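Exam prep: given the inputs below (a chain plus adenosine-5'-triphosphate), describe the expected output before reading on.
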Amino acid sequence: MNWDETGPETDQPSGPVFDDRLVDAGHLDGEDTAVEAALRPKDLDEFVGQEKVREQLDLVLKAARARGATADHVLLSGAPGLGKTTLSMIIAAEMNAPIRITSGPAIQHAGDLAAILSSLQEGEVLFLDEIHRMSRPAEEMLYMAMEDFRVDVIVGKGPGATAIPLELPPFTLVGATTRAGLLPPPLRDRFGFTGHMEFYAPVELERVIHRSARLLDVGIDVEGAAEIAGRSRGTPRIANRLLRRVRDYAQVKAEGTIDRHIAAAALKVYEVDERGLDRLDRAVLGALLKLFGGGPVGLSTLAVAVGEERETVEEVAEPFLVREGLLARTPRGRVATPAAWAHLGLVPPQHGAKGQQGLFGA
Ligand SMILES: Nc1ncnc2c1ncn2[C@@H]1O[C@H](COP(=O)(O)OP(=O)(O)OP(=O)(O)O)[C@@H](O)[C@H]1O
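Solution:
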């Protein structure tokens, strides 16, 4: 059966609310901000994983230092929580330069950008997070600033407006984006170095966890770190967050040292399963399997069944489920893979299995 969309959606989500997600790397709370500052690696040697980006960046920075020049502009792309801000701070530290941190959404007018650029010191690193969300006029001002270290400040309005050129000290722009494809080519081309951050392998996350545990003064054994790493969705921010929750559990319910058993018991309390799925992910998969026989089903129908907004299902839950090979987005709708049935411990219905054979060749 094909569970198609049935016209405009009128139902309001009415089910459980899935906010405050431990496994959502795109959302930061106050505790994250405070603790993350303490856990950030301070130099390239301490920065775990991302071998290729690290090696290339190391060369870029060493060469700039040897020339006594400011480093080339750097673009870092990748999902939230993979270490773009951390790397920008490392770039500044390695260049022995100050750093200014701002973000695309904070720069809505060209004047906002002119004010920042004109107050930079020579060699300073300007970190521009979410660079793809900058306004168009600011973006155009940035082209000239990156290339010629100069901006034209427009004074006045209409026919009487004049452009006053303003020289800037050489600086290094570090742009970060989760969506490199959204950057206009003229902007992308002005970066001397582009690094794409990948999701981390479990062994790399284990190293992140051991390092963070040392800094937080928490005892953890090898298996405890592996248990947390496996549930961290390839993302250091999530690994650090899960570690903090497991630490609380260990302090209250155990002797304080984290082993596999304690990590698993703690994350069961927080409803993060052994593959890193949380309540929202499992609700989406559960609805797809139990209500719609594994699909295909339209996104809006699935969202109503889960009691969530369409965007939340599409942008928050689905990317990870797709990455994990549990859900497929097909032209006919959302479809569960054989791995999804196995993960929830369910058996696909006979007719569903036939349909899925066609889709997955299983
Ligand atoms: N390679 C790494 N080694 C050790 N810790 C890391 C690494 N990458 C990230 N972290 C830790 O993960 C947390 C999140 O990193 P960071 O803020 O740099 O991510 P981000 O990519 O800038 O995220 P966002 O896109 O949301 O700004 C920090 O606490 C940082 O210490």
